[in-house]
Amino acid sequence: xQIVQRSSPNGIAAGQSGSASQVDAAGLKTAAxxxxxxVTGSGTAAPLRRGISNLDQPLQNDISxxxxxxxxxEQSAAQLRAxxxxxxxxxxxxxxxxxxxxxxxxxxxxxxxxxxxxxxxxLDSQLEFSSSEPAVQRFTVRGMSMANLRSGARETLxxxxxxxxxxxxSLTLTPGLSDGEIVARFNQTLAPAGMSVSVNDAGELIFVxxxxxxxxxxxxxxxxGGGIRFPAGQLNRIKTEEEAPLITxxxxxxxDVEAIRRTLQQVMQALSHVEAALAKVNAALYEASHRAxxxxxEIDVAGIDEAALRFADVAKEPSYSNLLALNSALxxxxxxxxxxxxxxxx
Length: 346
Hints:
49% of the residues lie in helices and 10% in strands. The protein is α+β, with helices and mostly antiparallel strands. A 4-stranded antiparallel sheet has the order 4-5-1-8. Strand 4 and strand 5 (205-210) form a beta hairpin. The longest helix is centred in the C-terminal third of the chain and has 40 residues, at 257-296. The radius of gyration is 29 Å and the shape is flat.
């Protein structure tokens, strides 16, 4: 009968606990453990005043959000450059693999559709970046123009964002209101729902809602009036029109030479937009990283230095048990983590 050696809960095989103990004795559990409890002169652990895990949560969000946005934008830029090369080659009648351009188009289209998730909700459809607020969608609503809202007698509007008569939001329009006062009333009414309102150059109200919530709003935006500006009686569904995305790869095509030329022009414009957004996000990441570096300067690094020395001492002893101990200590340390830490110290 074959006896299979089972692993212990900590992931180290039974019978190899001596290696784990050696790691613990050498102070190699993790650098984070040592950093979190630097050794004092008496040999006892003293609480760390500040550390990576103690950075302000908004600052951590700023850094992680910017990194996600940078990764998405760099990937998009690389795909657009490759697509630009393929399209230019097709126009120049160079020999290419069948379906190469079409494959590049599908690849970028899939990447753009994953924008919200891939960028962690930090980039909206206009490639505007925000790490502190979720991506938003801007849209207009039929009939919500200053020309219509200023005219007529006093009227109370009941607004539903989901088509339901529950949780109606009401505002009253009266003759003589200025544009600013009308916008203020809409803002006061819709602010509890996380929405804001402004007015564009054409005199239309611009509604702003979280991008993730917009599909439900688009299907359910309804208004009940008094028969002056909007119909009385039951709630009436009103058509919304969202702001067109900055990049629309679903409309790109390569069916003929003219379509390829148009697509090439759109790809070049898209690349310009992506590179401009990338520059802005990189600037935000640089600023957040330097704020983090300033905060990290307050950390007592004595414990980290001691852990590094102990680690080096164990690494000098060539034995299987030490090799196993070092390997266990390094589990979970990836290139991405190292790069992130180097960015903080840059």
